Amino acid sequence: MLQLQVNGQARQVDSDVDPKTPLLWVLRDHLGLDGAKYGCGIGQCGACTVHVNGKAVRSCQIPVSAAASQKITTIEGLANNGQLTRLQQAWIDLDVAQCGYCQAGQLMSAAALLAVKPHPTDTDIDQAMSGNLCRCATYGRIKAAIHSVSGRTTAEAEKEPIHVAGK
Amino acid sequence: MLQENKIRFDATPSQLFAQADPAKIGRRGFLKMAGAGGLALAFYLRPGSAVAAAPGAGSPLNAYVVVAPDESVTIFATNPEIGQGIKTAFAMIIAEELDADWSRVKVETASVDQKRYGNQSSGGSMSIPRNWDTLRRAGATARAMLVAAAADEWKVPAAECSTEKSTVIHAASGRKLSYGALAIKASQQVMPDASGVPLKERKNYKLLGSRVTGVDNLQVVTGKPLFGIDVRLPGMLYANYTKCPAVGGKVSSANLDEVKALPGVKDAFVLEGNGRQEEVMPGVAVIATSTWRAFTAKKALKVNWDQSQASKDNSTQAAARALDLSKGPGDHVIANVGDVDAAFEKAAKTVEAFYEYPFLCHATLEPMNTTAWFHDGTMEIWSPTQAPSRGLNQVAALLNLPEDKVIVHQTRVGGGFGRRGTNDFICEAASIAMKVNAPVKLTWMREDDMAHDFHRVAGFHAFKGALDAKGKLTGWQDHFITFTPDGKTPVRGGDLSASEFPTNVLANARITRSMMPLMIPCGSWRAPGSNGFAYAIEGFIHELAVAAGRDHLEFRLEMLGDPRWLKPGDPASLNTGRAAGVIKLAAEKAGWGKTLPKGRGMGLAFHFCHLGHVAEVAEVSVDDKKKLTVHRITVAADIGPVVNLSGAEAQCQGAALDGLSTMFGHQIDIENGRIKQSNYADYPLLRMRSAPPVDVHFIQSDYSPTGMGEPALPPVAAAVCNAIFAATGERVRRLPLSKLGYTI
């Protein structure tokens, strides 16, 4: 029987689960964690993004056997004891979501970016977030929400020399 | 809002139903009254109706509003939330007239109940215009009952009372009572005549027009189960359904025994279907213990298809045929205004061009899915659909069940774009559930989703325009080539009409049509028809302006003529004054006419559809390797008074970028009746790094408010292509750009 470390808890995976099952489907169908979403199954859309050892990864591309003994965080575990992160609060306040289906994946990619770059430039954000599709195209507000957490507006960030040079 | 949590953890389906049912939240008798018939407004807002309270649980004042002693106000939002923000917008409209304290408002998704709410659907940007009046009156009648209860308590005339933030105030005596304190008494009041209840003047709005964040935002950012794909019931099984890749194919044989022997597979069986593309086509269902087991089994499934009646459609051949057809006059005259032949004979200059755009799929990020459970003689369904009322009717007819034996719960929808206006996935799930003695969740793989869409139809326009010596447009001809499923009527999205601009404003204009056969199903795709027409028509208008040697903005405004409403009072008809207003505003905000560096250009387009007037300006540059950079898109829209500024702005931004994503990189190819694209790898959506900022400006005119889900999409493609011409001199008459060597 496989054991996973998910959101700080040890979770047993039923023995009838094929070890080749992607982590995404174990989270959703067996552990009752539906925040990570199925969009493409081929690592193209990012809707299934979770953290493995703090890095944003596509959970549809990892067999559950490879995730055992790794530290897994899903959108359900992003808040600390029910206290929303500033990033989640920014997502609410800037009214980022339209349909909302991709947003768990977007948040996990953004959180992983901010963990290593607390003050990302537009280019940093583009690079970190371009693996996550949003069919409703909420990209402008996603970018603004990430900037707001780092204490800036998108307009302020746009004034940075590195960004202008990037254009 | 917590409905889906209940599904997962502890509720039976009937309790679940109660979660979203004001009648059951209130007293039992309320439900009996619902059985008396009539539509929501006709019954629930009927004058003289009295509603008694249920202790503790809150008091329904009508089908939309429940006020509870704890000061919460629960508002029931009737239409599917597909990302257009309707759940928030509907609640805002009711709360405004109710003078509810928004911070105490809870918004629940309403049950699907035709007797109570009429037809519940989200499509055509019609939710706001169709429900605006009903929702205002729902709020206003509930408010009047609260006021009547307070007036009764204080023994003062109701007219002396005012309301503010969930409180009734009697200013003369300085007395106040909260809505919570009045809840029970209010529900015992006689319901006033909804058609006569006073409504607020726009200048007194506090909530409407402000920036309000989505009512489900907290659930979204914490990953709560909200969507159809998140539904889980005790003992639930998981299904996948495999249909012939070429529509119309039937199952000859399949390795069912092999599939049934696979681990985790509970059953595999053939459905004959009813032969209706929008309901159930033949295929093989696999029932398994998990989604992954069902998907894995699908890969092992081998079906021999009888393809004698299957589609042989070929999109490449159709495009070549359309070009041939375009040289003829067209089979059918759609419009013939004035004397077009004379206009061309007298013309100082004529311009001709052939425009084409491809088939598209919807690619909603949440693939089609539905959970269905046949129990106790009832088919109970949880579905992310845009058309739950129709879904209920379809399932009842399909399974030969009375309509009161079909229950449809609407879930949040992970993207609609028109795809989920068609309920094939509900009909399939219900058909499968009839053969499975357990709740069953049907989930399509992404590949199923792309193979079995209801596509945006490809279109072809052979244009001819006449200019006089002053460079004025004096004649217009559009031979439109589309497809037909039956040889008689065009497919959805192929219904170009005589009311289309500029035929509706010009003295001499002719539209003719030719149709080619098509078996692949087509359906509504965000701004059906308009999403292609606007690209072609607005591009050709720019060509005419260039040929006339005139500024596009000035030429475009001249075409509109004097400000007038073409059919006064009809919101579906163009208002040239509103059109000119948004065109000028977009141009001004974008800095139209300013000097731009070499390789950079601006393009303009306007389109009227779905009752909305929208103009857009794109600023782009193109380098010598055809790398396109879209610097900014400026949107100006007139949809009357904006309900939720945050939501309306988001719809404009999303629609503009959806349009850009599509015109840049999307094309569905059909070969031997099969869709060649299968996933996002060969149908690439716009990514953040290529998404420009979108500036949005509204003209909040005094016309009745209309929807914003669609009308900001159609102008984008033409605005970008016209900007490419301004930047490079290269005219784009065929989409997508990625097929013409552009990169983004």
CA-to-CA gap between the ends of chain B? 40 Å
Q: Which CATH architecture of the largest domain in chain B? A: 2-Layer Sandwich
Annotated CATH homologous superfamily of the largest domain in chain A: [2Fe-2S]-binding domain
The helical percent of chain A reads 25-40%
CATH top level of the largest domain in chain A is: Mainly Alpha
Q: What string gives the helices and strands of chain A in order?
A: EEHEEHEHHHHHH
| Helix and strand composition category of chain B | alpha+beta
* Count of strand segments of chain B: 27
Q: Judging by the overall fold, what is the CATH architecture of the largest domain in chain A?
A: Orthogonal Bundle
Shape of chain A: elongated
Total count of helical runs of at least 4 residues of chain B: 22
**Percent of sequence in beta strands of chain B:** 15-25%
Describe this structure in words.
The complex is a heterodimer of chains A (167) and B (744). Chain A is an alpha+beta fold and 167 residues long. Chain A has two domains: 2-77, Roll (Ubiquitin-like (UB roll)), CATH 3.10.20.30; 86-166, Orthogonal Bundle (DNA polymerase, domain 1), CATH 1.10.150.120. Chain A is 38% helix and 13% strand. Chain A has helices at 23-30, 64-67, 86-93, 103-116, 122-129, 139-149, 154-158, 161-166; strands at 2-6, 9-13, 49-52, 55-58, 71-73. Chain A has a five-stranded mixed beta sheet, with helices on both faces. In chain A, helix 3 (86-93) crosses helix 6 (139-149) and helix 4 crosses helix 5 (122-129). The termini of chain A are far apart. Chain B has three domains: 3-208, Aldehyde Oxidoreductase, domain 4, CATH 3.30.365.10; 237-309 and 367-451, Aldehyde Oxidoreductase, domain 4 (2-Layer Sandwich); 315-360 and 455-740, Aldehyde oxidase/xanthine dehydrogenase, molybdopterin binding domain (Aldehyde Oxidoreductase, domain 4, 2-Layer Sandwich). Helices cover 31% and strands 22% of the residues of chain B. In chain B, a hairpin with a 2-residue loop joins strand 5 and strand 6 (167-170). Chain B has 744 residues and is an alpha+beta fold. A seven-stranded mixed beta sheet of chain B has the order 10-11-8-18-15-16-17, sandwiched between helices. A five-stranded mixed beta sheet of chain B has the order 13-21-20-19-14, with helices on both faces. In chain B, strands 1-2-3-4 form a four-stranded mixed beta sheet. Chain B is built from 22 helices and 27 strands. In chain B, helix 6 runs parallel beside helix 8 (127-154), helix 15 packs across helix 16 and helix 21 packs across helix 22. Residues 1-21 and 23-56 of chain B have low confidence and may be disordered. Classes of the chains: A alpha+beta (167), B alpha+beta (744). Chains A and B meet through helix 1, helix 3, helix 4, helix 5 and helix 6 of A and helix 10, helix 12 and helix 21 of B.
